[in-house]
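Lecture notes, continued. The same structure-token format from the folding unit now serves as the input rather than the output. Read the line below as a description of shape only.
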């Protein structure tokens, strides 16, 4: 197996997890929050897509799908276009209350396509490239991509669990 095959497979797993968490869910299910401090399925999926979009575009040296493909306007959120949801307040989470399954998966799929375009053809040597010197030790491309995959799968799992709770309430 080649490096790019491993990464392509991992990001395909993220896409499958996102779709399982969202496909066919009602607006009420996507917006459900167990309490006023909790995340919703919509927020979790939007956030994981935003982080993947932000981080992969950064290491690829490209514009994010969020702005390049007009997703920022389609979502119509009251945030700066650079917002990824990190450290969000409860009111920010509530702003995703009107997101539909189609909007969420459409955006995620756009991010996924761009991610696959970038990771296709990466080699072992590419993964050693330092992409962020703000940390000690500096972050390599391999560490950054692994971090994105891990974070995405955690949030997709949370979204799937929360969907189950919402549908059983």
């Amino acid at each position: 197996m080649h490096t790019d095959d491993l990464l392509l497979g991992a990001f395909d797993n993220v896409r499958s997890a996102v779709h399982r968490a969202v496909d066919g869910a009602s607006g009420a299910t996507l917006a459900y929050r167990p309490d006023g401090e909790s995340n919703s399925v919509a927020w979790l999926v939007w956030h994981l897509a935003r982080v993947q979009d932000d981080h992969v575009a950064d290491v690829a040296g490209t514009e994010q799908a969020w702005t390049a493909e007009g997703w920022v306007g389609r979502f119509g959120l009251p945030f700066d276009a650079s917002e990824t949801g990190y450290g969000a307040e409860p009111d920010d989470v509530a702003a995703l209350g009107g997101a539909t399954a189609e909007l969420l998966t459409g955006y995620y799929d756009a991010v996924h396509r761009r991610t696959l375009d970038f990771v296709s053809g990466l080699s072992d040597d590419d993964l050693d490239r330092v992409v962020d010197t703000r940390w000690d030790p500096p972050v390599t491309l391999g560490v950054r991509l692994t971090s994105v995959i891990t974070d995405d799968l955690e949030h997709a799992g949370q979204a799937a669990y929360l969907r189950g709770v919402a549908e059983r309430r």
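Point for the exam: The chain has nine helices and two strands.
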